Predict the 3D structure of the following.
Amino acid sequence: MERDDDIHHEHARKLKVFKHILSQVGEDPSEGLAMIDAVQRLGIDYHFQDEIEEILPRQYMIAANYSTSTSTNDDLQQVALRFRLLRQEGYNVPAGVFNNFILNNKGKFIKWNVSEDIKGLMGLFEASQLSIGTGEDHLLDEAVDITAKFLNEYYSKMMDLDDDDDNYYQARVIVGNTLKYPHHKSLPRFVAKNLFLSNYQGENGWIHVLQELAKIDYNVVQSLHQKEIVQVSKWWKDLGLAKKLGFARDQPVKWYIWSMACLTDPSLSEQRIEVTKPISLIYIMDDIFDVYGTLDELTLFTETITRWDHAASEKLPDYLRICFKALDDITNEISYKVFEEHGYNPVHSLRRAWASLCNAFLVEAKWFDSGHLPKAEEYLKNGIVSSGVHVVLIHIFFLLGQNITSKNVDLIDNNPGLISSTATILRLWDDLGSAKDENQEGKDGSYIYYYMKEHQDSTAEDARKHAVGKISDAWKGLNKECLSPNPFSTSFTRASLNLARMVPLMYGYDDNQRLPILEQYIKSLLHESTYLPGVY
């Protein structure tokens, strides 16, 4: 206990020191940008939101001036970093800030010598991930392809150089991680261990303070997550569904990981635990519809949930009656907590979300049973709902308790773009996987399969490229939804983004039907006892 007190005391001291440093940045644009970038990449920016909100408006004014400037003496790395940080916080910065860097006087893309400005090209590649795909943002869509090409060439050259040279090794890791895990589309705490803090400016003090703070913060948060998993595991065991439903997956840690990824602020402990509960039921119900239930049983079950009919539930087969009771209990418990804490009872919204999910599951079951082959887009439209993303995010929305207005409730009930874009990313990533989760003999097809059936002259590679393109478009839609003005709270918007960022880890199957990236993530965040950002 004394040691825990010492750790928290040291954490508070380091936090106070860096808050002071960050508040003293003043008008130095490069230093302020570097600090914000560093704390975000380390996943500790939740401590510094007030300081960040103080710095960024000044940076926005600088960006506004750049968009009309004709100067050619500016620093591409700094302009790209400013653009990315501002867009990540919802500022609608025009892509025209890059015109002087990527277009010549004929409107053509400039041919770079990659070795001359590797940091600038990495910055532009990172900034291009925030494209919204409209207007002048088409420049960013071209820039991401061009910068990726140059960076891959540079990375290949670095691979041929001596591993014993620390500078070459560090450059190779930084470029490789930029290509594989662009910041905007990655979970910061997952990639933080590969972060070289020495790459930042300002080595005269704040780098060391920040590194020490990140180490302590990591261990404090890790301890909190471990305690939450104990609570989640106890809840799941007490619920008894794993015993009552022999076919059901028994993976409380995996389900909790979704909540942990979405809600990263340590203060949201209760919300993480509560959100894990509906996530577990999504997986159970997916198995029921995809593997276990007959069409008649599934139809009756869906009708019962659509009407939320307790009397009808008594006529269900035992396994479905048990599932309905668990669903009803959890929905009522969460609704009561939301009402107690925020003064709004979301029970009708939550029930409608579950009914929509079950109806989408049933559509897929009917397709399989009848042999019907839907068009790829018909499948995807239904698959956005059957992904379960709407159910997860609507629970998060109410549990956060922010901006709960009648207008926003109506908006979120109807699967707005913020949610449907995230769901599209999940559905298509899932379908790109070459393995079936847990060797389930699924009945729900895939976008790739239906696309190839619809386009008989397409190869599997053609279908995959098409799906990857649609994922890219969905990310642009998600980016646009996150720009201001946004009716939802920052916490909810970030939860939606984090869910999308988690998807590649959760569906990154290898040839052995394993999830090595997810396993690495779980090990890193929950089990490893040391954390040394900058020492890889």
The domain at 2-211 is CATH 1.50.10.130 (Glycosyltransferase). The chain has a mean pLDDT of 88. The two ends are 31 Å apart (CA to CA).
